[in-house]
Design a protein that fits this description.
Radius of gyration: 13 Å
Shape: globular
Largest sheet: 7 strands, mixed
Distance between the termini: 40 Å
Strand content: 35-45%
Number of helices: 1
Length: 128
């Protein structure tokens, strides 16, 4: 069973960068679809980026061109590199993992927010 644990959040100035990590203390993340999602105060949770076990990738429109999702299977970790951060990126960022037998496509995972396991989240605040 996957137990995602997020880290790497913090306070950053507009235009700055952060790298979030999603590590797993349970099963091998390499067999799972993994996604990053976020929820800002007063808003619904939204998808940011998803990566399949074949390394197929989907980005939300807000992430495209600024964020990069990647895997390091040796470290059992999925990363979200976030560049050119804006105040509107402020949110709690969650890592989700989709059970292999239930995974379809990265687009479905992101657009439909299909995840079987969720981390506790890490706060990202973009402010001057």
């Amino acid at each position: 069973q996957v137990q995602p644990v997020e880290s790497g959040g913090g306070l950053v100035h507009p235009g700055g960068s952060l790298r979030l990590s999603c590590a797993d203390s349970g099963d091998d993340l390499q067999y799972y679809g993994v996604g990053w999602f976020r929820q800002a105060p007063g808003k619904e949770r939204e998808a940011v980026a998803c990566i399949g076990r074949d390394d197929s990738i989907y980005y939300s429109e807000s992430a495209l061109g600024r964020f990069t999702i990647s895997r390091d299977n040796a470290k059992n970790t999925v990363y979200l590199q976030m560049n050119s951060l804006k105040p509107e990126d402020t949110a709690v960022y969650y890592c989700g993992a989709r059970f292999p037998a239930r995974f379809t496509t990265v687009q479905d995972m992101c657009v439909r927010q299909e995840s079987d396991y969720w981390g506790q989240g890490t706060q990202v605040t973009v402010s001057s």
